[in-house]
Amino acid sequence: MCLATGRSEATMDKTSKRKARPVILVHGGAWATPEGEREDHQKGVHRASLNGFETLLTGGSAVDAVQKAVEHMEADPTFNAGRGAVLNTHGNVQLDAAIMTGDGLRAGSVACVSGVLHAVALARAVMESSPHVMLVGDGALEFAREAGIETCEPGSLIVDRERERYAHAKRFMKPGQLDQLGGLASPADTVGAVACDADGHVAAATSTGGALLKLAGRVGDSPLIGSGLYADDRRGAASSTGYGEGIMSIVMAHRAVESLTKSVGPSEAAQQAVHVLESRTQGRGGIILVDSKGEIGFTFNTPCMAHAYIAEGMTKPDVGI
Ligand code: GLY
User: Fold this and answer.
1) Which of 59, 62, 88, 216 is a plausible cystine mate for 197, CB 3.0–4.6 Å?
2) CA of 210 to the centre of ligand 1 (A)
3) Residues 76-103 pLDDT 10s
């Protein structure tokens, strides 16, 4: 288990208008990331955090920053999101994603979507250009076309690594079943980001291909507001990762955000949430958090969770796995 706050590396901005320290924290999924894939995961989260941070520094809001960071990981075939996502029992990519801003508790979410690289952009369009919070399947794709979100051939999201994982899984796993390491051997994870901007607004985003060999139509925690992510300017924002069935049972992201108080900071809130995941559901995963002052915390009970954060005053992201 690993904890950090990042406070020591950051210098607080002295400008009086600032309500919070601009910061972004991203993760690339909590699982037993194979030795040979770890460097790519660390490089990917490093670049994603920089992309998001640049957005914050050039006047973008927290929600702009988390979208940008997650889009970067969706386009990077290293991760189980967008291009590079795991395959379901029929050998297809089916994506879930969500985005939420703590400014007005607005959220958008999509599930079981094929043929879109940036599912998080589609989730944002649901939030901003539809009267709803969540769209799924063909309806979500129809909305993507209407909203001008770029669509693609579903097969173009499949990479050789995942074709091989799928072929191996088909031989050794039953559809919908956990792998031999209880879900840890396959990237049943998510990519995610949380951010706080100088105005003290917080946001969270998630995107995932879900669980390897999942049943067609299975929806994980990632697009579920409260489970995969949550954001409330009064407290903070969180993004969860890991095998979704346990995360959903404890509504992990909302639980963690609600536990933020003057005396419980993001590190402790993250630790408590993962403790509940493990003790109540035997679940494995991780969570990243930011509070509305820009303090961060994260933890995981899996062998790895690639992560990176950068705050105002830092010269480069702090990266780990
Ligand atoms: N956390 C991703 C999923 O279980 O679908």
Assistant:
1) 62
2) 4
3) 999 999 999 999 999 999 999 999 999 9
